Each structure stands twice: as C-alpha cells, then as structure tokens.
Fold:
Amino acid sequence: MGSIGFLKKFFSRVDINLHETNKQPKRVFTPRPHRIQLLSLHHVQFICKNPLIEDPIPLLNISTNGAGLMKNAISTLPAPGTLLQGDFDFNGERHPIEMRLIHNSGQVAGCAFQGDFSQIRDRIVRYFDLELSALKMTQVKPEMLQTEADGTPHWFLGTNNCELYLVSKEERVIRFNLSFFANYIEGGETIPTRFGQVVEDTRIDKPKAKGSALVLWEKALPEDLLNTACRFMENVLPLSSAHRIAILEKIKKSSPPNA
Structure:
C-alpha cells in the first residue's frame, strides 16, 4: 500500500492588505521542507572558509533549503545575517555552499541556503533518501485498524514500501514489524528479533509469507543494516519516543557484537 499522505510542517506569517485595514489580517500558511535530524553516524559537517572557522562544524539538522549548525562547536559565533561560505562534507565528499546565519537559539545556529543551491539540494535528497522516506510516514487512524487481543495496534505507512506496525501496552512494545527499502525486521517482548529481505520470488525455499510478499530470513543482523534501521527509526516522527526506544533496543540487542 502506498503512502496515505505526507507529513507536513507549517510556519505562518501575517499578510496585511493596506486597503482593508479594518479587516482581520489573513493568515498565510507556507509548507516547510522536511528537516532531517542528524545522528553521529551520518558523518555530515560544514567547513566554513569565510569567515574562517578552524574546526569543522557538525550539523544537528538539515533540509533542502537550510541547515542547523552545532553552536557549541563554534568558538566565535558570527552575528545573525552573516553570509557563511564553505563546503558541506558528506562523509569525505565535499560540496560548496553559501548560507546566511538566520538565528542562534538553544544549541542550534540556523542557516538558510543562498544563491543557486540546486546541486546541493539534489545531493541532500540522494544522501538522505532513507530519512526523507521515514519523514513521509503517516499514521493510519486507530479507528480503521482491527483490534488486537494483546494490546493497542499502531500502523505507519510511507513511500518506497516503508511500513511499521506495532502493538503496544502503554509505553511497552509487545510486538512489531518494520519494512524499509526491501528490509524486514520483526520482534517483540517475548518474540526473538529477526530480519530478512522482502522478495517476490515464490521459488525460494521456506520463506515466511508477509501479505503478498515473502521474507527471506538471514542469520545475523549486519552492522550497516543496524545503522540504517536506526537512521530510519529516528525520523518516523508520528512514532512516540517510548515506542521508538523500545524497538531500537530490541533491534540493537539482536546484532552480534562483531556483526
């Protein structure tokens, strides 16, 4: 089943018509691009050349039109409005970028891309395809789900055949199954965590049926798939923090120390 809608964040501004000053101002809503929360395993940082900042600056978040820099990593923070020129470093691959510092609040120095940033936008989309798919996950209305004897069901759907189904009792996750980019992971409180690849070839011996697809089970969870699952789960925004933590703990415990 495809996505039933895209997660949208909005910010608002007040638009005043000078010819209608006696009327209430109209509120205009503008869609905001999905903002990806970054983890240390992303290996993405900003190298500022003008003004010169000696050490690379880790990113806390990024979208297709701006980024949030880690304030604590900047010895002397430029004033809002300053144009920053430098490179984004995507795990050793550099791309030039100009950004204007818009605000600095809390731990984040928020910046907006300047000039023609179409190439960096395309690179962000390719690099963060996994996270963007997770950000587009939407939750199916609870009243549309069949009741479960062992708890409360939750179902999240997205693009690229991404899907998460879980049954919970308050903050506990009784059982879950997760599909993303042809990967499949399932487990629960009393269910061993296991993973495999979603396939369509019915000639494969002894797969487990999953709807109209099949799962070819694997013996161990590789480290790269563990990292991928963590990246994906961190960006399923409708999912509660408690349920996210419970699922990630089960997934991480299933990975051998030297996987």
Q: What stands out?
A: The radius of gyration is 22 Å. Confidence is low (pLDDT under 50) at residues 1-31, 201-212. The chain is about 15% helix and 40% strand. The longest helix spans residues 241-253.
